[in-house]
Design a protein that fits this description.
about 140 residues; about 25% helix; two-stranded antiparallel ribbon; 9 strands; 5-stranded antiparallel beta sheet; alpha+beta
Length: about 140
């Protein structure tokens, strides 16, 4: 009986995912796990450098299509960060080089990069939005 219970626990634990270690898909497009991790790692480093009192790490991430554009939305208990993606080779998505992060708009998608990759669309009436630009 102990073996059955232990095996059940392993199966349940293995099926749960926070989206940080998996290939993410939306429709027929995919963001490889290594690319997602690289985007998040760079974003966490940039945001943490601008906030020396704390280290920012994201606990969940997902792909979303918003108004025809593709985004990687990462969240933790305090922040939500939305990274604009563009189509790469084949059916892949890659970073377009802009992310927008907000603290007070963490319940939704936060502030969102414009599809042209130039600026962030604020969420609500708050001006709590940090634009981060990375090299592609």
């Amino acid at each position: 009986m102990k073996k059955v219970t232990f095996m059940f626990f392993l199966i349940v634990a293995a099926s749960c995912s926070d989206g940080l270690d998996d290939q993410l898909t939306v429709g027929n497009l995919k963001l490889e796990a290594a690319d997602s991790k690289a985007i998040l790692k760079g974003l966490e480093a940039s945001l943490s450098a601008g906030n020396p009192d704390s280290v920012i790490t994201f606990s969940t991430s997902e792909l979303k299509k918003i108004d025809g554009a593709y985004y990687l939305v990462a969240k933790n208990d305090e922040y939500v960060s939305t990274t604009l993606l563009k189509k790469g080779e084949g059916n892949t998505l890659v970073s377009a080089g802009i992310s927008c992060t907000s603290k007070n708009c963490g319940n939704g998608d936060g502030c969102i990069p414009q599809a042209d990759g130039q600026s962030c669309t604020p969420c609500g009436t708050t001006e709590d939005c940090t634009k981060t630009v990375t090299q592609e």
